[in-house]
């Protein structure tokens, strides 16, 4: 395939060399004459393991070159990659000037290309790190400037890179996944073909999802480093080998290093997380250590609780029915259950509540479970109902707070209700209902994680 790459910095240079090594003919486009001369003399524009050899070899084979002539590059290639910089402004926003200038070039040239080659379809892949909505903005600019139609005459695709400096070539050939954000099957398939030789899953997502992923990934990486450092500070103050602690921590692939706990939703609770988090915070305090990340964890949980409560505040004159009150599905543990805390708050504000939970029977509660309820909702017994259908008939608003399988069938038969879903049940719902997901829409619940193409 004939490919043009706009921007010969880190991502552009690595992509130029690796795509050529995979058999493509690639032209790099840049405004910097030094970078252009380097590529045209078989030299890399960056210092990075293996890329100098790749560039030299591919230059000798005639597969790569560089130019400042964007018109010639667009007219003579089928697919373009935008890899120009998106530096941060002094206010913390992205400077999109370089990307927008490139978009103007495409708007000017694609009209001409369509006149020359009426059957052409140009695919533009944005690899630069950008905020969600940027591809849409660029596509609109190109449409306005060229008179062409996105996803008919050309297409914008988000194809974020996940390359680390120092191991960029290795990362290119050994990615954890290849992410393509697209609205157009033809464009998605064109980008997918670039990575046919790579040993990784190709994930097709909507464009905005793809655009936000680099920010989510790198923020999590920063979070991991900061968490490890705060744990390390506590350990070293106690004479404990922090690396041994984290080595053991990383051996748990079921919970610690896994996708468990990584689904947005309701607040956490239970007898362990709040207690042990508080214990580590207290230990750090007693050691006179600052651990702002660890100290902020429960505050984030409180914010999620308030977010859920605020959704219900506009239904003050409605009957509220809770589907589930326990700490999690399949248990009668009510200690530090976020649903209990929510119910307690709503009762205090004068809401009319009713609760169904097949696992909870107040007459059988004993020990700390009974003490907790006696302290927080002493009149729980009069709020509990044994018949889920009776609760549904009585309630105007149904709050789903545990992921019980029986609720899926129950809610599929409900009509004319407001459903507040805190756990993302996989449900098909009657259109007469109003659905509110705490962090998602009903369309998201019912759609697949990957686009069909």
From TrEMBL:
It is an enzyme of class 1 (oxidoreductase). This is UDP-glucose 6-dehydrogenase. Residues 321-428 form the UDP-glucose/GDP-mannose dehydrogenase C-terminal domain. SUPFAM superfamilies: 6-phosphogluconate dehydrogenase C-terminal domain-like (SSF48179), NAD(P)-binding Rossmann-fold domains (SSF51735), UDP-glucose/GDP-mannose dehydrogenase C-terminal domain (SSF52413). Coiled coil: none annotated. GO terms for molecular function: NAD binding; UDP-glucose 6-dehydrogenase activity. GO terms for biological process: polysaccharide biosynthetic process; UDP-glucuronate biosynthetic process. The active site is at residue 272. It holds the Pfam family UDPG_MGDP_dh_N. Its EC number is 1.1.1.22. The keyword Repeat does not apply. It comes from Spirosoma endophyticum. It catalyses: UDP-alpha-D-glucose + 2 NAD(+) + H2O = UDP-alpha-D-glucuronate + 2 NADH + 3 H(+). Belongs to the UDP-glucose/GDP-mannose dehydrogenase family. InterPro entries: 6-PGluconate_DH-like_C_sf, NAD(P)-bd_dom_sf, UDP-Glc/GDP-Man, UDP-Glc/GDP-Man_DH_C, UDP-Glc/GDP-Man_DH_C_sf, UDP-Glc/GDP-Man_DH_dimer, UDP-Glc/GDP-Man_DH_N, UDPglc_DH_bac. Substrate binds at residues 162-165, 214, 261-265, 269, 328. Keywords: NAD, Oxidoreductase. Pathway: Nucleotide-sugar biosynthesis; UDP-alpha-D-glucuronate biosynthesis; UDP-alpha-D-glucuronate from UDP-alpha-D-glucose: step 1/1.
């Amino acid at each position: 395939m004939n490919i043009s790459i706009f921007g010969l910095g880190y991502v552009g240079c690595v992509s130029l060399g690796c795509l050529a090594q995979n058999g493509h003919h690639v032209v790099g486009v840049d405004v910097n004459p030094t970078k252009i001369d380097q590529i045209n003399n078989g030299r890399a524009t960056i210092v990075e393991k293996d890329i100098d050899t790749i560039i030299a070899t591919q230059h000798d084979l005639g597969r790569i070159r560089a130019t400042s002539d964007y018109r010639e590059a667009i007219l003579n290639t089928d697919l373009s990659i935008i890899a120009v910089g998106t530096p941060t402004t002094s206010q913390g926003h992205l400077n999109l000037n370089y990307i927008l200038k490139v978009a103007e070039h495409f708007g000017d040239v694609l009209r001409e290309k369509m006149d020359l080659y009426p059957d052409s379809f140009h695919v533009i892949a944005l690899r630069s790190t950008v905020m969600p909505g940027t591809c849409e903005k660029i596509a609109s600019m190109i449409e306005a400037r060229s008179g062409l139609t996105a996803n008919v005459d050309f297409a914008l695709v988000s194809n974020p890179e996940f390359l680390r400096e120092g191991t960029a070539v290795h990362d290119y050939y050994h990615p954890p996944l290849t992410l393509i954000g697209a609205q157009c099957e033809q464009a998605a398939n064109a980008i997918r073909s670039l990575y046919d030789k790579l040993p990784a899953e190709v994930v097709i997502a909507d464009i905005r999802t793809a655009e936000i992923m680099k920010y989510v990934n790198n923020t999590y990486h920063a979070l991991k480093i900061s968490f490890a450092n705060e744990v390390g500070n506590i350990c070293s103050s106690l004479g404990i080998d922090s690396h041994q602690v984290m080595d053991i921590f990383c051996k748990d692939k079921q919970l610690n290093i896994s996708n468990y706990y990584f689904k947005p939703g309701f607040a956490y609770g239970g007898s362990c997380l709040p207690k042990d988090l508080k214990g580590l915070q207290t230990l750090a305090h007693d050691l006179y250590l600052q651990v702002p990340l660890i100290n902020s964890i429960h505050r984030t949980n409180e914010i999620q609780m308030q977010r859920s409560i605020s959704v219900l505040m506009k239904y003050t004159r409605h009957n509220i029915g809770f589907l589930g009150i326990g700490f999690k599905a399949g248990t009668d543990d009510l200690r530090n259950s976020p649903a209990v805390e929510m119910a307690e708050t709503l009762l205090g504000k004068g809401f009319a509540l009713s609760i169904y939970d097949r696992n909870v029977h107040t007459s059988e509660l004993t020990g700390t479970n009974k003490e907790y309820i006696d302290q927080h909702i002493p009149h729980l017994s009069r709020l509990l109902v044994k018949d889920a259908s009776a609760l549904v008939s009585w309630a105007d608003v149904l709050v789903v707070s545990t992921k019980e399988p029986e609720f899926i069938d129950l809610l599929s038969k409900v009509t004319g209700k407001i459903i507040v879903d805190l756990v993302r049940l996989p449900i098909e719902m009657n259109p007469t209902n109003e659905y509110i997901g705490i962090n998602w829409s009903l369309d998201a619940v019912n759609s697949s994680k990957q686009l069909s193409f």
